[in-house]
Write a structure and sequence with these properties.
Helices cover 43% and strands 14% of the residues. By secondary structure, it is α/β, with parallel strands linked by helices. A six-stranded parallel β-sheet has the order 3-4-2-1-5-6.
Length: 242
């Protein structure tokens, strides 16, 4: 791994792993091959985050539309990939040595097959009391869904509490991501020529985020690329609206 100053590290890094399918197409491979290569990149990114001491890493595994509107073959391949990844994480010594609490966020229980749901729940159960680091996977996740869910939950609470005051704290407590710290650095791969967010990804937690867009497709986003993104973050001055 490239040397890096351990000062001024982002505490929470989120990754939107774009361009798996474009990577596969470029190489004349089936789309699921791109997702498989992307999963390997995800392992490298996780290792890099652990080695650096990043407190929280979030990786977007797929939006609701990603996992409902693509071909059955591609979706089934993704579901198998998630299940396999969760099972491997459960056995990785780094997860237990670093006391990494793993969370799966989104509407994944409405989408994954029973075996995938079981693997995710087991991983979360085993790591639920860990307090060293946070590792989050967003599956079947849309930020718009999260916000609508929070609003509905607040309305329900208000029916039983007429004096309820809507505050930032109240809203945060009703979010799926309410327990997560604010995102400091959001990395989107394969998108330097098309820099954008998607379906309000963690819209509350990214209110003051620093974005990093790169043309590097996710399967090629290795440890060195991860370090490059962190170094770019360290060079910036965060004003946070001041």
């Amino acid at each position: 791994m490239k040397k890096i100053n351990r000062d001024n590290l982002p505490q929470h890094i989120a990754i939107i792993p774009d361009a798996n399918r474009r990577w596969a197409k470029k190489k004349g491979l089936a789309p699921w091959r791109g997702h498989l290569a992307g999963a390997k990149a995800g392992v490298e990114n996780t290792e890099a985050a652990l080695e650096l001491g990043i407190k929280c890493l979030s990786i977007w595994g797929g939006s609701w539309s990603n996992l409902t509107k693509r071909s059955d073959l591609e979706i089934k391949a993704l579901f198998k990939l998630y299940e396999s990844y969760f099972k491997k994480l459960l056995k990785r010594k780094e997860i237990h040595e670093h006391q990494v609490k793993v969370s799966v966020i989104g509407r994944w229980q409405e989408l994954l097959p029973k075996s995938g749901i079981k693997a995710a729940k087991e991983l979360m159960k085993v790591t639920q009391d860990y307090n060293g680091r946070l590792l989050n996977f967003f599956i079947g996740y849309n930020g718009t869904d999260e916000m609508i869910s929070a609003i509905k939950s607040i309305v329900k609470e208000a029916r039983n509490n007429k004096d309820l005051k809507v505050t930032p704290k109240l809203l945060k407590n009703h979010l799926w991501t309410g327990d997560l710290p604010p995102v400091d650095l959001l990395i989107r791969t394969g998108s330097n020529n098309d820099p954008h967010n998607s379906v309000g990804f963690m819209m509350w937690q990214t209110a003051n985020v620093q974005y990093y867009f790169t043309n590097v497709m996710y399967p090629d986003f290795n440890k060195n690329e991860f370090i490059k993104a962190v170094k770019e973050y360290q060079r910036r001055e965060r004003r946070l609206g001041k």
